[in-house]
Amino acid sequence: MNIQLKPEQEKIIQTQIESGKYNSAEEIVDVAFRLFDKLQSEYAEWIEETRQKVDVAVAELDRGEGLDGETVIAEILDRFKRARQEKE
To answer: Residues 48, 50, 56, CA angle at the centre, nearest 5°?
Structure first.
């Protein structure tokens, strides 16, 4: 596989090699792919956790355990008001 790098990408690689932190472009690309893989994995985990939280919330709403929007907004505004008063 042949990959064409943008000039700014080549500059990043060259800077890293010159810093002595890495010995070759291949080493830098390897690190980049490992980080990309980790990021993808963490994102997939976040998506799954978020779906589970949404499922729990929907079940709570179905059981009538939810709060109406006006109540939530009133509670948030009250917290802001108390926080502002504590600052003064």
So the answer is: 105
Give SS3 for 65: coil
**Token couple for 37:** 């893989």
The domain ranges of the chain are 8-87
User: What's the pLDDT score for residue 68?
Assistant: 85
Strands annotated E in 6-75: none
Closest C-alpha to 56, from 65, 47, 46: 65
CA distance 73 to 84: 17
pLDDT at 48: 98
Q: What span, in angstroms and rounded, lies between the C-alpha atoms of 69 and 78?
A: 14
**Mean pLDDT calculated for residue range 40-46:** 98
